Amino acid sequence: MHGHQHAPQGSRAGRNWPGPWRRTPGRVLGTSLVRLYQLTLSGFVGNTCRHLPTCSEYAYEAIARHGLWAGGWMGLFRFLRCGPGGTHGIDNVPEELAPRFRWFLPWRYREIGRKRGCG
């Protein structure tokens, strides 16, 4: 091998998070909307995301992992951080959310990822 690895035989190689997630109606709707954006409008917007994963990949994973409500807020706040003067770098979706992130306090989701990638 010369410094690169191939995906294992039979694995999914794709743009979005391949991990296991519950296919609830909200999650399927949310991830479908993100995928629709990726297949249509994303090409017109261009490759301008300042983060890895990209904002749409982040939103897809956040919705798949944490549901439409929490993941949707996380995706929105991530998108807002991507503008001029915002953060940049690697900013992964947290595997689990701290208890302080409650559904009835959506403004708290903007704190996720704010400190990572700055500078």
From TrEMBL:
Alphabetized UniProt keyword annotations: Cell membrane, Membrane
InterPro entries the record matches: Membr_insert_effic_factor_YidD
Subcellular location: Cell membrane
Source superkingdom: Bacteria
Region (Disordered): 1-22
Chief localisation class: membrane
GO cellular component: plasma membrane
Pfam families documented for this protein: YidD
Topology of this chain in the membrane: Peripheral membrane protein
Summary of the function given for this chain in its UniProt record: Could be involved in insertion of integral membrane proteins into the membrane.
Annotated family: Belongs to the UPF0161 family.
Entry protein name: Putative membrane protein insertion efficiency factor
Organism (species): Aquamicrobium defluvii
